[in-house]
Amino acid sequence: MHAWPASEVPALPGKGRDLQIHDTATQGTITLAPGPVARIYVCGITPYDATHIGHAATYNAFDLVQRVWLDTKRQVHYVQNVTDVDDPLLERALRDNLDWTELAERETALFREDMTALRMLPPQQYIGAVEAIPGIVPLVERLRDAGAAYELDGDIYFSVESDANFGKVSNLDAEAMRLLSAERGGDPERPGKKNPLDPMLWMAARPGEPSWEGASLGRGRPGWHIECVAIALDHLGMGFDIQGGGSDLAFPHHEMGASHAQVLTGEFPMAKAYVHAGMVALHGEKMSKSKGNLVFVSALRRAGVDPAAIRLALLSHHYRADWEWTDEVLEQAVARLERWRAAVSRPDGLPADALVEEVREALANDLDAPAALAAVDRWVDAQNASDGDDESAPGLVSRTVDALLGVAL
C-alpha cells in the first residue's frame, strides 16, 4: 500500500531542540533524544468515514513530532497502518450495501487526499492489515506455542497474565479496563475466556465474512492489536521512540499491543514513549463515527476552506487537550491565515531570528503549538505596526511556519 506525496520541508538556520513530551505510561514529561534516526509508529484509520477533524487533529500532532525531529537534523522513520479489515468496516459495508474492499479503498484514497492537502508528512511504510497477514500468522503461532495464547471455539486469545508488565501503558485498574474493553471492541463477557480482558489474536472464519489461510491457525483474520504489533516489529523493532494515536487508543489498543510485543521479544518497553492526542467534540459530544457527529476535512475543502486554515485551527489547541470544533474556531483560523500572509508578503520586515527560536522552544516543550502560534502572532503584529528593513525576514518567517508548523504562507 502506498502513502501520499511528501511536501518539501524547508531547512532553517541553526538546529532545533530535543523533544520533551508527555508519556502516558509514566504520566510525566520525558525528554526524547533518539539516535540519528528517530522511530515513530502511529496507528492509522479504519477506512470508513474518513477523514474527520478528530483524525486530522491526531495526525497533526504526530506531524509536529516529525518536524521537531527533522529540525534537529535527524532522519525520521515513520510507520503507519490501515486497519482495512475489521468488524466496524464490515458492518458499514453491509449497511451501505457495498463491497468491503471497495469501501476500504475509497476511504483510504480520500484519507490520502486529505493528508496531502493538510501537508502532513507521509510515513515511509503505510501498511494495510490485509497485506500484513503473512507476518501476523507466525506471531500468533509463537504466542500460542509459548503458552501465552489459547484457543476458544476456534478463536485464538492472548493471555494478558503472560505479561508481567501488563497495565503499565494505561495505568488503569481492572474494573476500568473491563468497562473500556466492552466499549472499545473487546468481548469481556464471552464465556470460556481465562481473563475477561484477554484480547483476540485470530478470529476463526465466520460465514459471509472475509478470511485468509492462517497455517496451523486455520482460516480466519487477525485481531486488531496484533496487526499493529506485527507491522511495528517488522519495520521498527522494539524500543522505538514513540507509539502514537488518539487518547482512546491507550486502552485497550496500545496496552494490548505492548503486551503482545513484550511477550514475543522478552524486551520491555515496546516504545520509549506512549503519546496520545486529545478528543475533538462537536455540539458538546466527542466526535465519533458511532454518533455520526463528524466534520469532514474533504467537506470543508469542497466548501472552499483553505487547508492551511484547517491546519491552523488544529494548531490553535494543544494536542493533548480535548476541545470542541465550532464555526468560530475556523473563522479565527481563516483570519489568522490572512494576517500572516499579509505580513510576510511585504518586501522587508522586522528581524525574525528570535521568532525561529521561540517557535522551536514552544514545540520542543510538549508540542505547545498554541504558544508557537502566539509567537508568530506577536511578530505579525509588530510587523504591521512598524517599518522594518530586514529583507530576509518575511522569507524566514514563511520558512519557519512551513518547516515547523506545516502551514504554507
In terms of topology, how is this protein built?
Elements: E1 19-23, E2 28-32, E3 37-42, H1 53-71, E4 75-82, H2 87-95, H3 100-117, E5 125-128, H4 129-145, E6 149-152, E7 155-158, H5 174-183, E8 200-204, E9 220-222, H6 224-235, E10 240-246, H7 250-265, E11 271-277, E12 280-282, E13 285-286, H8 297-302, H9 307-315, E14 323-324, H10 327-344, H11 353-364, H12 369-385, H13 393-405
Parallel strand pairs: 3-4, 3-10, 4-5, 10-11, 12-14
Antiparallel strand pairs: 1-2, 6-7, 7-8, 8-9, 12-13
Structural notes for this entry:
This protein is of the alpha/beta class and 409 residues long. The protein folds into two domains: 19-297, HUPs (Rossmann fold); 305-405, Four Helix Bundle (Hemerythrin (Met), subunit A) (Up-down Bundle). The chain has helices spanning 53-71, 87-95, 100-117, 129-145, 174-183, 224-235, 250-265, 297-302, 307-315, 327-344, 353-364, 369-385, 393-405, and strands at residues 19-23, 28-32, 37-42, 75-82, 125-128, 149-152, 155-158, 200-204, 220-222, 240-246, 271-277, 280-282, 285-286, 323-324. It has a five-stranded parallel β-sheet, sandwiched between helices. A four-stranded antiparallel β-sheet has the order 6-7-8-9. It has a three-stranded mixed β-sheet with strand order 13-12-14, with helices on one face. A hairpin with a 2-residue loop joins strand 12 and strand 13 (285-286). Helix 9 crosses helix 10 and helix 11 (353-364) runs parallel beside helix 13 (393-405). It is globular. It starts with 18 loop residues before the first strand and ends with a helix.
